[in-house]
Design goal:
heterodimer; A: 82 residues; alpha+beta; B: 234 residues; Beta Polymerase, domain 2; globular; RelA/SpoT domain-containing protein (chain B); RelA_SpoT (chain B); NT_sf (chain B)
């Protein structure tokens, strides 16, 4: 799966998350470019495109974006890896 | 679109200056699609090889601002940034499995130009892991291979950096002047503890110390403290 997260560094929380299936390679890149363009606070808001088998796996490798605290403002389908 | 290393590096200069014209922007979009395709290849191979319970595997594509920040922070040129495409493997055991995973990764990319960067031997401001650079023509990617302790240490440092400034990850001191004296001291102590934990992790992983559980607890304590402080000050 492909996930694009918008992460506010100053609060340590996600402000947006987009989920794509593996086949949506190009739409996910278009979305990344769009979010980059729209980002008016690039030093505070990170826009990151991540790929893995599942969101649980992303929680294991990129836990700072997928912790309970980081995701407290967005809807989550995460199944905890630990 | 035909790209050369010189064209990529000219784009890097434009990114650094923050002034991308329409042509630069379309070159960047093309370049990013090439990086993403390389990332896709790397990711597929790694998931096939390592995608099971012993390993966590993922791939991250840097965005324009993080590329810009890296170009400004370092003397690297855009064509030589290897972590725009960054895969990460988190293994569930120590150095022996890490060494084995490095060899398997190198074998997996035998058709690419591959280089091993051992950040256990040469840590980067306390950060330890093994990175495997993967080059295909003009495009570079990186695979970070971390043990659980190396990974938790890196995560703790990332968390702490949100409060004390990202420069701590690159050799700068923690910036804590704006906090109350209590929080100031908590953050400063957490930073010192984290640096010390990094040293102990190294000794623990080579078998000089046997305190893995205590080290994990120390790292978790720092991360929890960061979250508590964030809840209060943000």
């Amino acid at each position: 799966m492909i996930v694009i997260v918008q992460f506010r560094r100053s609060t340590g929380k996600l402000i947006g998350i987009d989920r794509f299936c593996d086949e949506d390679f190009w739409p996910s890149l278009d979305r990344l470019a769009e979010l980059d363009r729209q980002n008016t606070e690039p030093q505070d808001v990170e826009v990151v495109r991540l790929t893995s088998q599942s969101e649980a796996m992303l929680a294991r490798t990129h836990g700072n974006y997928f912790s309970e605290y980081a995701m407290s403002n967005v809807q989550t389908d995460v199944v905890k890896a630990e | 679109m035909e790209l050369s290393r010189a064209r990529i590096d000219r784009l890097g200069e434009a990114i650094k200056s923050g002034e991308l014209n329409d042509v630069d922007q379309s070159v960047f979009n093309y370049l990013r699609s090439q990086w993403a395709e390389l990332g896709n290849e790397i990711s597929k191979k790694l998931i096939l090889e390592f995608g099971n319970d012993e390993f966590g595997v993922s791939l991250r594509l840097k965005n324009l601002e993080t590329i810009r920040a890296k170009l400004l922070r370092t003397t690297l040129r855009l064509s030589s940034l290897r972590d725009v495409v960054g895969a990460r493997i988190v293994i569930n055991e120590g150095l022996s499995l890490q060494n084995d995973s490095v060899l398997r990764s190198v074998a997996l990319f035998e058709d690419y130009a591959v280089k091993i960067i051992d950040r256990r031997e040469f840590p980067s401001f306390g950060y330890r892991a093994v990175h495997v650079e993967v080059r295909q023509g003009l495009y570079l990617g990186e695979i970070q291979i971390r043990t659980p302790l190396q990974h938790e240490w890196a995560r703790s440092m990332e968390s702490l950096a949100r409060l004390v400034g990202r420069d701590v990850r690159y050799g700068g001191g923690p910036v804590v002047d704006t906090y109350s004296p209590v929080v100031h001291n908590l953050l400063l102590n957490s930073y010192r503890n984290l640096v010390e934990l990094g040293r102990r992790i190294e000794m623990s992983e080579v078998g000089v110390l046997n305190d893995t559980a205590e080290l994990f607890q120390g790292l978790i304590t720092i991360k929890s403290l960061v979250i508590e402080i964030e809840k209060k000050v943000r």
